[in-house]
Design brief:
Elements: H1 3-13, H2 17-36, H3 42-58, H4 70-89, H5 96-102, H6 106-110, H7 115-122, H8 127-137, H9 142-153, H10 158-165, H11 169-191
Length: 192
């Protein structure tokens, strides 16, 4: 842990307003981006963002630098707050697998993609593919969207994602692989 983080955490544990401002300045945009990828609507994301920092400030004494970095600990809180919001206030949404069950042509999408096909689609994306990936993310349930964004956008390790989602790295790796395949299927559907 850096000296800056050590001082910040010490200040937060002392409930210092200056340390709270520093935490908001340093981690605020990161937390908001994480929340906004899961929670629809800017106003809703702002509400969850505020809840995250209230919890961070209130529960700072529970932070253990031996278990995770401070950033990962905050991500854990942000993820849980977003999931809680989604459980209680989420508008009804239909995700890819829901449509797939109702679609008679779902058999063709149910075919398993090989890792080579996934790598061909997602490995070296061009501008069009990036747009298709962004569109495909909207068709994923929040938990899958979260894992993809933590891994690719936030560049978190499998171990860090496992901490945030209260899982284990091998489970995260399996879910990441399945979700990548699902994104490829969605992209193929969007292109057809």
């Amino acid at each position: 842990m850096t000296d800056n983080n050590t001082e910040l955490i010490r200040g937060l544990r002392e409930q210092s307003p200056k340390a709270q401002r520093m935490a908001l300045e340093h981690y605020g945009s990161y937390v908001f981006a994480q929340v906004a990828r899961l929670v629809p609507g800017v106003e809703n994301a702002e509400e969850v963002y505020q809840d995250v920092f209230v919890k961070v400030f209130k529960n700072i004494k529970m932070y253990d630098e031996q278990k995770s970095s401070f950033r990962t600990w905050i991500s854990h809180i942000a993820y849980n707050e977003a999931v809680t919001w989604l459980r209680h206030k989420r508008p009804t949404m239909i995700y890819f697998e829901d449509r797939q069950e109702k679609d008679d042509s779902s058999r063709r999408w149910a075919e398993e993609l090989t890792d080579a096909e996934v790598e061909e689609t997602l490995g070296h994306p061009n501008g069009e593919t990036v747009q298709l990936i962004r569109a495909a993310l909207k068709h994923l349930p929040p938990d899958e969207r979260a894992i993809i964004t933590m891994f690719y956008y936030e560049e978190m390790s499998l171990k860090e994602i496992a901490f945030v989602t209260e899982s284990i790295p091998t489970t995260v790796a399996s879910k990441l692989s399945r979700t990548r395949k699902k994104i490829c299927k969605i992209i193929k559907m969007l292109q057809s």
